[in-house]
Structure formats: C-alpha cells, structure tokens
Design a protein that fits this description.
Chains A, B: It is found in: Cytoplasm. The structure is a homodimer of 211-residue chains. With 211 residues, chain A is an alpha/beta fold. Chain A has 9 helices and 9 strands.
C-alpha cells in the first residue's frame, strides 16, 4: 500500500486506535463498525472514518472494519511489525515500573537490560532482565544492537548518558528526565512529562467548577 | 482578566509553556522575547505569539514577555494558583515514582497519602507521606478533602476503587491503570498511557529510516 503523508494529529491518535483494536482482538472480536468503535473510544464515528481513511479506506460498507487487518496495518505504520531492542537507564522506581510492563514485548519492544549507578542494584533482575552498572554501558552497546533507550535517571546525569548512547548507535531516546537534550538531528527524542497530564486534569477540573 | 474560549490545542501546550517559564524564573530571567522563547522551546515565534495572545497579549513590543507575570497567569488558567489535595492508589513502583516527584508540590498538588493492598507496605513512608491499606480508603476520604486520585494499580482493581473514590467526593482521576472508567460526567478523568509515547517514538524512527 502506498502511504500518503499523514498529519501529526492523526499520527498522535494512532497508538490509541492500536490499543483499542488490540483489546478487541484479544476479546475475539473480528469486525467492528465505525459507530461501535466510536462508542467504545468516545470519538465521533466521522472522526474515525476520516482518520482511518488516511490508510486507504479499510472499512467496508455494511461490514465495518476487519479488526485484525486494521490492527496489523496500524502496527506497520507505527513500526511495530519489527522488533526494537531497548534498554532502560535508571533502575529506580520509574525504571522498574517500565521494566515491568510486559505488554511492551507484545508490541515488539524487547527490553535487553537496565542500567544504574547504585551498587545495591547490581545483579538484581526484573522479569529475568538484569540490572547492570552504568560503567558497563559502553561495552554493552558495542556488543548489542540497541535502538532505543529510556532515560529514567536524574536530569543531572541525563545529558552525559545521552551522549554515550548516541555515540554508540542508539537512535531513539524515550526521555523521562526533565531536561532538554541537544542531540544530532537523526536521533529521535520523545520527551515525557508526566506532570503535563496532571496540569491538564487540573485545568479540566477548573472548567468543571465554572459550569 | 476576562477569559476567552481557548482551543484544546492551545490548552494542551500550556503545561509546556508553564514548565519553561518556571525554569526561566528559577534561573533568574525576568523577561524574554518571543524569539528567544521560540529558540528555547523549538516552536516558531509566531506560534508562541498566537498562543499567548489568547490570554490578552501579555507581550510588549520591544520588551518581550514578563516571565513571572506570564508564569503566574498561565498557572491561574491551569488552576495551579490553588492547592489540590491528592492521593495515590497503588504504591508499587509507579506509585512510588510519582510520590517522589517533589515538584508536584510546587505546582500546588499536595500528596496526602498512598494506598495499597500489600501488607508489607503498611507503615512505609515516602518523603514522610504514609502508605495506608486500601480498606482505610473510605474513612480517609470522609475525613480529608481529597480532590484528585492517581490510579497506579492493576486494571482489575481500578474500576472498583474508582467507584469508591467518586462516591466519596473525588472529582479528578489521573488514571494510569490501562482500563476505561465509566464515571459520572462531572468527574474528570485523564488517562495516561505511557506506551503511546513509545509508539510515537517508534513511528518517528521509521520516518527517519525512510529519509
């Protein structure tokens, strides 16, 4: 299928479609109409049709969407049809919380190791995956094909570690450290600020009060 | 100041402005031009001017933006000028990671307690804040004015706990449990799916490969 240029707004909604379709697939649902999907996802049916038409109109009149096909196609667009090796730098609470999400593996994200500076964590495993010391990081990267690194370490260390990662071939940084990274243009950085969603919640509570 | 109706897209960018302005304030910066703010935030200066004009044109020609004023005004819009008491349900890794973000307090989010079902966590404190057992939750809510609850517990328990929260006056749910909650319309729910940002990273890596 020839892929058209897709707007950023549509792209940002794809992970959500992917999750819902995954749930449907797990529940044994084979097809779904845009109006049923609309009720489930709390978006208008016309938004769903518009969004999914971007990928060449997978829906069929009177039949609806083939759940498995749509799930697979969206997965391909998101690059989930191939495996991504990733590591987590910072094995504190957040790092360990991420390491415990077994569902990443289902989407092709394979956690290879965690790294920390705390000697008490040396040799600890999480779901069988070992925590290594940061001084082993460079060697580890040279001997393993790691595409993505999650940064769940204090911001004072993030910039230094990011440089080591990039110098050793890491192409994507999932950045939970609260700092901006200045990296080469071909490195993809996704900054995650958990507090942003809390502020949005606060804003919506204020709006609620006004009504 | 009379508040105009602000689009959702602008609202979703406000937490980011708030963060950057907070950093500037901490660094002792008193004013900033839209072009300097633009360079720092990697958005166009015209986008910044457009966004901030929504709040009545705080910028002044030849002077730029007064950082403290803008920070305060955006804080007000986000409802951060008053305190929000909140609790965390689920004191596992993710719950503890959230409890350790002291910076929430600076934005007016006051963590009052964590709750868990694991008896080994009873009496544990995080930054001086106690973990209580979930069977104490209802009493606690009756005796404390809690506005927001973060759900960092397994999805099998989330729906049941959310009902207890809402029945006892909680108005906002910051939902990290991977499940949809059907709650009364006046309850604000902000669903957080960490994996969505990882999928977005994966998508951007794919696009990079194609270039």
């Amino acid at each position: 299928m020839e892929q058209r240029k897709i707007s950023r707004a549509v792209i940002s909604r794809l992970p959500r479609y992917y999750r819902y379709l995954g749930d449907l697939l797990e529940a044994g649902v084979e097809r779904i109409s845009s109006s049923d999907l609309s009720k489930k996802m709390h978006v208008t049916a016309s938004q769903i049709r518009q969004d999914l038409n971007n990928f060449g109109g997978f829906g069929q009149q009177g039949y609806g969407y083939n759940v498995k096909y749509l799930y697979t196609e969206i997965g391909k667009i998101l690059g989930l049809d191939r495996c991504h090796n990733f590591i987590i730098i910072g094995a504190g609470n957040l790092g360990q919380a991420l390491a415990n999400y077994a569902s990443f593996e289902r989407s092709g994200f394979i956690l290879k190791s965690l790294f920390d500076v705390n000697p008490r964590l040396e040799g600890v495993t999480i779901r069988g995956i070992p925590v290594r010391m940061v001084d082993e990081l460079e060697d580890f990267l040279k001997n393993n094909d790691i595409e993505i690194a999650a940064l769940t370490l204090p911001k004072s260390k993030a910039i230094e570690v990011a440089d080591i990662l990039v110098d050793n071939g890491v192409k994507g940084i999932w950045n939970f450290a609260h700092t901006d990274l200045s990296l080469p243009k071909d490195v993809v950085v996704e900054n995650v600020h958990l507090s942003d969603t809390l502020m949005k919640l606060s804003y919506n509570l204020c709006q609620q009060d006004k009504e």
